[in-house]
Amino acid sequence: MFSRKKEKPQIDPLQRELYEHARKRIIQKKRLFQHFIVFIVGALFFMLLNLVLGYGKEITFFGIDWFVAAILCWSFLFILHFCNVWLFSKFMGKEWVNRQMERLIAKQKAEIALIQKDVDLMFPKEELLKRKDGFIKGKTSEIVGELKESTSTITMIAAAGENNALGKDNDLVWHLPDDFRRFKKLTTGHHIIMGRKTFESFPKLLPNRVHIIITRNKGYQAEGAIVVHSIKEALEMAKGDMQPFIIGGGEIYTIGMEYADCIELTRVHEAFDADAFFPDIDTKIWKLEKEEFHDVDEKHKYPFTYLTYKRKNT
């Protein structure tokens, strides 16, 4: 749905991360060694100027010879650099950052569990089952509205051509600014569920949204995102959200079709050459509830229509 072209990674993301970390540490150590050499040479030069050549013998700072004061200041900077390269990286390096991230994720999960507990207290499972039975027996239509309000609405959001084309080479084949703004408005503040390729097409994390990535790679890591390995795990992580969004790509949409309650589809009125496609919408299962047409203008090369589908009651 929301994608920008990005060069595909040639190596595993975890290996790339380890490589980059090692490269930065080597550069730090190299600069520390250079700093040490400059410090030694500079200190000897100052002493030569003062003690051998007699330069600035009358200059003092707080009763200390000027070259001694300069060496002390330089020593402070060198010690600070040394601590940053060795001590701080040792005690507050990558492992420390990972531990902090794990603590934050655990805290978030605990908060979600507390919210879910409150929801369970407000809407006990037994009461919901009774209301569902009441609906099946046709006792009252009001029960349906109350039940829907108490459960989350899983929404798939996408933009697809007339031939269900989503994009090619992990990128969109159109540019619709109004659709981007609509995507941002609908998904902000919610969990967004996506495949690994869709996530890696983003230039950065989308603000004010919880990213959940589905991947078969058990070792995959993504800073600032939650990584799971099935659609059920993803929906469990988004359990506290009243409207989580499934945002692609094609395989995730196909899997998510079984679980979704709503589809927000931007139908681009043109057929495109693509390698990823949105699944067909079965009108026996889905009911079109709203549509809004947008014509071509100076910012939009193709006409398109916002379509809102809701799953029919079965």
Note the run of SSEs as H and E. Answer: HEEHHHHEEHEHEEHEHEEEE
Structural class of the secondary elements?
Answer: alpha/beta
Strand fraction band? 15-25%
Rounded radius of gyration (Å) = 30 Å
**Quaternary assembly:** single chain
Strand order of the largest sheet: 7-6-5-8-3-9-12-11
Task: State the total count of DSSP E strands.
Answer: 12
CATH fold call of the largest domain: Dihydrofolate Reductase, subunit A
The structural domain count equals 3
* Helix segment tally: 9
Envelope shape: elongated
- The CATH architecture of the largest domain comes to 3-Layer(aba) Sandwich
**pLDDT average, as an integer?**
78
How far apart the termini lie comes to 29 Å
Provide structural commentary.
The protein has helices spanning 13-52, 66-91, 94-122, 125-136, 142-150, 177-187, 196-200, 231-237, 250-256; strands at residues 60-61, 64-65, 155-161, 165-167, 191-195, 210-214, 226-228, 245-248, 262-268, 276-277, 286-294, 304-311. It has 314 residues and is of the alpha/beta class. It has 3 domains: 13-92; 100-151, no CATH class; 152-311, Dihydrofolate Reductase, subunit A, CATH 3.40.430.10. Mean pLDDT is 78; it is low at 5-9 and 143-150.
